[in-house]
Amino acid sequence: MTLPRRTHPRPLDIANGRIDLTHGGGGRAMQQLVEELFVAAFDNDALNQRNDQAAFDVPPEMLRGGRMVMTTDGYVISPLFFPGGDIGSLAVHGTVNDVAMAGARPLSLSAGFIIEEGFPLSDLKRIVDSMANASREAGVPVVTGDTKVVEKGKGDGIFITTTGIGVVPPGVNVSGDRARAGDAVLVSGTMGDHGVAVMSQRESLGFDTAILSDSAALHTLVADMVAATPDIHVLRDPTRGGLASTLNEIAVQSGVGIALRESDIPVRPEVKGACELLGLDPLYVANEGKLICICAPEHADTLLAVMRAHPLGRDAALVGTCVEDSHAFVTMRTAMGGNRVVDWLAGEQLPRIC
Amino acid sequence: MKYIDEYRDGGLAQALARTIAAEADPARTYHLMEFCGGHTHAISRYGLEDILPANVRMVHGPGCPVCVLPVGRIDAAIYLARQPGVILCTYGDMLRVPGSKRLSLLKAKAEGCDIRMVYSTMDALKLAQDNPDRQVVFFAIGFETTTPPTAVALKQAQALNLKNFFVFCNHVLTPSAIAQILDSPEVRVLGTVKLDGFIGPAHVSTIIGSAPYEYFAEEYQRPVVIAGFEPLDVLQAVLMLVRQVNQGRFEVENEFARAVTRDGNSKAKALVAEVFELRKSFEWRGLGRVPYSGLRIKAEFARFDAERHWDVPQDSPPDNKACECGAILRGVKKPTDCKLFGTVCTPENPMGSCMVSAEGACAAHWTYGRFRDIKAAPDSKVDP
After folding, report:
1. What pTM was estimated for this model as a whole?
2. Could you give the ipTM of this predicted complex?
3. Which stretches make up the PurM-like C-terminal domain (chain A) (predicted)?
């Protein structure tokens, strides 16, 4: 038996090597990077065919009247590594969740990497391994990808774009415009964990915290919920802008008001404390492993029970109700007994100065 | 959360509100000005106006450091940011404040100026140390609370013999602003603004103490209650003011005794006195030029003074004509009295400074309270 001729006499120097322009040039250096780093980590049938595209069978739900969904998301987070995750795991979880928020079963992902010249190969391997790990845990393979290298100073280390496709079971119609007055508003757990975990690592803040990002793939939670109650009206993950901005999106899309009760919204004491220090409001801080569910009031108890039975929904809570309001205000009864608007996030949430 | 939740207890708040309602004389109206933006924010964020009786009205004062900075000083900061080699450091709130010609630091940053958001003066110092070939200017703003950290930074810069660290000083003094409001014709002569009492600043008072307010209470015969920024602090202060008004007293009382003493923080005061001196006058948005209301860097620290190092323009371009920030800051008008409010002026696109900072009266009302305006207008009622 003859082994195929080795194209790369020496393996990549992961420990000390850095990305250079040849790694995106289309030549042998790029091929070696793809083989030794990406294909080795993601290792699945579609990718192993080494084609420029992935081919796969039509999912069985499609033959019974299911619908396909597709989503894409760019990840530009800084810092790249944070307590509870990194840009790699986030790029898998975020896109799997965007697919799942249609009530869909995610099928596969693509991954596009834009890497800045000089980026350490050890960091790249750490990110790719974490991504592969997240995709294996989620059972959603990365079936095709792309790598580009940009000159130093033209990127911020690494940017990742992932695209996901999935299939919505027949009879499920989850959409941001389906909230109706009287509907119940549920959240799957505590608000603000991800944003605070990331903020704690920012160079200029650098406070010590035990708070981990909640970054997680929510599709198994969604599958349990859809199995129990196919007629869920709205699902959405409150990422950038937090619970407040996401609920405002839904309110406008559906043309309803949303009335929240402050004392029912779960927030970890550590997150509350960090937000106090930084002058932030946890309702505007990003989550990466939580979902908002809006459903008919008669389904709320069932869905809450299903969510609480799942490890990612243990702290699920009923936090409010949709109301008639042509102005689509999101309001909140405060713990003090007063009312206030819970507005869109304006600009970036900035720390207060005095 | 220990030491926080105790001051946000809904049950206690309801009980306090009931006591206020019981003790407030139904035959009169109580106009209470909270000077500080921190209080304005707490009142709006916790919906306290909903639980106060209708005859206790909160008048929002000028105590938001971002809001009172005049357009000219924003323009000056942009001028500094445009100087070759300069890194301008600023607290985040200042980035979106509109200067003249629809410019802001955020827009200047997009144009290519090197403007960095910092969380403390120490970040700015570190930037100067890390970038010896650049000139780092710290845009210092704020009341007595943020002044001591700037003083520390200047002392450190001197100790480190930094050649590339500068401070653009805009620190202002609370007592002068309160005096200016009480001296304004609207309050003193015309009576168009009724002020029956003041809620005194929380954090500022931890530095200056409660003694500086004794003069106002005596001279202008208005009660002052210094209060913390938590909702129960505010309600307790309202109750104390209602009682003083009812009893015809005008004293300085301290609700925030857990942090404020009569004399304040003498160490911080000494530090400030060592580094800064009074300006003869300083321009405030809404209040105009107020005598002895701002600080400048003493000659001893002149080499760190951005205003001495660069020829910083001292123009004072006017605010947008339709913008009522000035009157709102003096308590003469409410945010909803301004034609721009919520139409062309929103937190996303602020025309005036009161809409920029979360502590500004307009931003607080827009962000937390504007549903009340719609409910108050019968023609906009929604039929189910």
Report:
1. 0.85
2. 0.78
3. 180-331
